[in-house]
C-alpha cells in the first residue's frame, strides 16, 4: 500500500483529477454524495435508469459548470450491470478512481408472508449488483495499484430490523463482502470500505416517517435527537474517497447520530 501523502491536511481531501462512478445518485443520500465529491474536485459519472428524465443531480452539477457523465443501467437487470463498469470507463475516457455503490431498494412485509419475488429483487439490487460492479472495479484498479470502493451498508448490517428480512440479509452480507474485498485488495493499494447510515429522512424511510408510533420509538432512541439528512454523508464519503483515508481498510463507518452507541 502507498503511504499517506505528506501534504497539508486540507490537500488530503482533494479529488482533483479523479473520476467517480456512483450509483443511486439521482436522489437522497447518493445525490448529496455526488455533489460533495464534485465539490472536492471529482468528475462524476452517475447511473440513471434507461429512459428516465434528467435528474436533479445532473441539473445541479451542470448548473455549477461540472456536467456529469451519465451511463444508463437498471441495477435489477444483472446482464446490464455486468457491462456497466466497462461502459462507464469508456464514457469517461480513462480511469475510474472511485466506485461508490449507493443504490438500494426496500421491500417490507412480515417474514411469514414475504414474497420470493421481493426477496430476489432486493438481493439482486442491494447485493449482487454491488458484487458485480466491485469485481469489475477490482479488475480495473488492482493492476493499476490504486482505487477506492465505498459500499453503502446500513444499521441492518449489524441488526435484524422488523419486516425487512431481504434488506437485512443483503446489508449484512454487504458488510462481510466489504471486509472480504479489503482483505484481498488492500495490499494492491485499493481501499474498500463501507458507510452505514442510521435512520435518515429519505424516500426509502417514508413508511416509517408516516407511522406516528414507529417514528416516536425511533426518534426517542437516537442520542443526537434527530433523524439524519443526506447532507450528513458529504464529509464521510469525501473522506473515504480521498487520500485522507489511505490507511483505512475494511471499515464500516457508522453515521447514525449515536444509535449504535446505545
From TrEMBL:
<dbReference type="InterPro" id="IPR057326">
    <property type="entry name" value="KR_dom"/>
</dbReference>
<dbReference type="InterPro" id="IPR002347">
    <property type="entry name" value="SDR_fam"/>
</dbReference>
<dbReference type="Pfam" id="PF13561">
    <property type="entry name" value="adh_short_C2"/>
</dbReference>
<feature type="domain" description="Ketoreductase">
    <location>
        <begin position="18"/>
        <end position="188"/>
    </location>
</feature>
<comment type="similarity">
    <text>Belongs to the short-chain dehydrogenases/reductases (SDR) family.</text>
</comment>
<dbReference type="GO" id="GO:0016616">
    <property type="term" value="F:oxidoreductase activity, acting on the CH-OH group of donors, NAD or NADP as acceptor"/>
</dbReference>
<dbReference type="InterPro" id="IPR036291">
    <property type="entry name" value="NAD(P)-bd_dom_sf"/>
</dbReference>
<protein>
    <recommendedName>
        <fullName>Ketoreductase domain-containing protein</fullName>
    </recommendedName>
</protein>
<keyword id="KW-0521">NADP</keyword>
<dbReference type="InterPro" id="IPR020904">
    <property type="entry name" value="Sc_DH/Rdtase_CS"/>
</dbReference>
<keyword id="KW-0560">Oxidoreductase</keyword>
Amino acid at each position: 500500500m502507498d503511504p499517506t501523502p505528506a501534504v497539508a491536511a486540507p490537500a488530503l481531501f482533494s479529488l482533483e483529477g479523479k473520476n467517480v462512478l456512483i450509483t443511486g445518485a439521482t436522489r437522497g443520500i447518493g445525490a448529496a454524495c455526488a455533489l460533495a465529491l464534485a465539490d472536492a474536485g471529482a468528475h462524476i459519472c452517475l447511473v440513471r435508469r434507461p429512459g428516465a428524465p434528467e435528474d436533479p443531480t445532473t441539473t445541479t452539477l451542470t448548473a455549477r459548470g461540472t456536467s456529469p457523465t451519465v451511463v444508463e443501467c437498471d441495477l435489477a437487470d444483472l446482464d446490464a450491470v455486468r457491462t456497466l463498469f466497462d461502459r462507464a470507463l469508456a464514457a469517461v475516457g480513462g480511469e475510474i478512481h472511485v466506485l461508490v455503490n449507493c443504490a438500494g431498494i426496500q421491500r417490507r412485509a412480515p417474514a411469514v408472508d414475504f414474497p420470493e419475488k421481493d426477496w430476489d429483487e432486493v438481493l439482486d439490487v442491494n447485493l449482487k449488483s454491488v458484487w458485480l460492479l466491485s469485481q469489475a472495479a477490482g479488475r480495473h484498479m488492482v493492476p493499476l495499484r490504486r482505487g477506492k470502493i465505498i459500499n453503502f451498508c446500513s444499521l441492518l448490517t449489524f441488526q435484524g430490523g422488523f419486516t425487512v428480512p431481504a434488506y437485512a440479509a443483503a446489508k449484512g452480507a454487504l458488510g462481510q463482502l466489504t471486509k472480504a474485498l479489503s482483505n484481498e485488495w488492500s495490499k494492491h493499494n485499493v481501499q474498500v470500505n463501507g458507510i452505514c447510515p442510521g435512520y435518515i429522512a429519505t424516500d426509502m424511510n417514508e413508511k416509517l416517517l408516516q407511522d406516528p408510533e414507529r417514528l416516536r420509538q425511533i426518534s426517542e432512541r437516537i442520542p443526537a435527537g434527530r433523524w439524519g439528512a443526506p447532507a450528513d454523508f458529504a464529509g464521510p464519503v469525501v473522506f473515504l474517497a480521498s487520500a485522507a483515508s489511505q490507511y483505512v481498510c475494511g471499515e464500516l463507518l457508522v453515521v447514525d447520530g449515536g444509535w449504535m452507541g446505545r
